[in-house]
Amino acid sequence: MNPFKKITLFLFFGLLATVFQANAENTEITTPPAPTIAATAYILQDFHTGKVLAENNADARLAPASLTKIMTVYVAFRELGNGHLHLEDSATISEKAWKTAGSRMFVELGNQVKVEDLLKGIIIQSGNDASVALAEHVAGSEATFADMMNQHAARLGMVNSHFKNSDGLPMEDHYTSARDLAILTTALIKEFPDYYRWFSQKEFTFNKITQQNRNKLLSRDESVDGVKTGFTDDAGYCLVASALREDMRLVSVVMGAKNANARANENQTLLNYGFRFFESHRLYEGKKTLDEPRIWKGASKTIPLGLAEDIYATIPRRQYKDLKAVINVDKKITAPVAEGAKLGSVKVTLNDEVIVDKDLVALKAVDQGNIIQRLMDSVMMMMEKSDDGK
User: Fold this and answer.
1) How does pLDDT run across 52-98, given as a tens digit for each residue?
2) Is 69 designated active site?
3) Minimal CA–CA distance to 252: which of 192, 314, 316, 178?
4) Residue 226: phi, psi to the nearest 5?
5) β-pairing verdict for 52-56 and 90-92
């Protein structure tokens, strides 16, 4: 082959390679379907937005085993928050608590145990005896405590849950669902971040007995900081997990796995999928002024509008640049306006699909102006209306 042809072919194939490389770089990977999980039910959702990234059988009413204890400690945290319970309070161990079967904290009959120790015994050691002791201390009896659990479940919107005890031992009409557990876990982390740190503790010693946290993901994945394992013959192996990577938190629930390794592996699979193919962004900060429109007949000329809380969006990776936001403000806002009044909306779309639609609210109250201000604004409003009609 003559030298000219060799140079021509070299340039041609070089150009072809460059084109293929450019096309490869410009081709974005589409979000693949969620992995298949070997469990009776499961769900993966974003903590901030509640967006479900994967699920199967998530509303089925299933035996929760020790996942029940997430609600047990949630009720206790609420009691701590309202001042009805204190960490340094001491609970007397009843015969019922002492004799409770299954996983134990090894409390002793008649002893006084601090509430903080009982909570750690429930969260870290999964102590059934500790659960009953705490329930009796909070409510007088475990049955009454179960009523409190059900009231909180209803308030949180856990429509497929009903609790009969505090420890999760098998009992007729005691059930929950994967979705409800995700709702509960989200509420617990959001409302009680200081107490939530106990869920990442790998061991706890009580009565000179050290027990390990059964959540294997705490040792496998440093981003995992909770939440709770469970097992009974009818429930199978269960695990609620939560992980925080950078600013994104995910909650995964796996119920009815075949063994302890499987429940950890399946949760890890869900978490890895969510973090690999999705991202979460805080788009707007709550309680910050986004617009300050004219308010008529008020003590001030303008009113600050914003969001009641932070707005987050969960989207497929590499699509942040495609988000579009539109702020709509009500026309002719007239005083008086109460703080928190809905006066518009913020809509965020991705590829023409609405992914966030939140109310724009008054960040402060504006009272009526004096009679002169009201009269002047009435005249100006009439003049504007007249101009609009021309």
Assistant:
1) 999 999 999 999 999 999 999 999 999 999 999 999 999 999 999 99
2) yes
3) 178
4) 170, 180
5) unpaired
Low-confidence stretches of the chain (pLDDT beneath 50): 3-27
Sign of the CA dihedral with 194 first, then 199, 203, and 206 last:
positive
Task: Give the pLDDT confidence of 174-208 residue by residue, as tens digits.
Answer: 999 999 999 999 999 999 999 999 999 999 999 99
Catalytic residue among 94, 103, 126, 252: 126
- Asked whether the whole model's pTM tops 0.85, one would answer yes
Nearest-angstrom CA–CA distance, 387 and 385: 5
Phi, psi of 191 (to 5 degrees): -85, -30
Rounded-to-integer distance, Cα 361 and Cα 343, Å: 5
Q: How does pLDDT run across 160-179, given as a tens digit for each residue?
A: 999 999 999 999 999 999 99
66 is catalytic: yes
Tokens of 29: 């990977």
Spot the catalytic one: 69, 216, 228, 358: 69
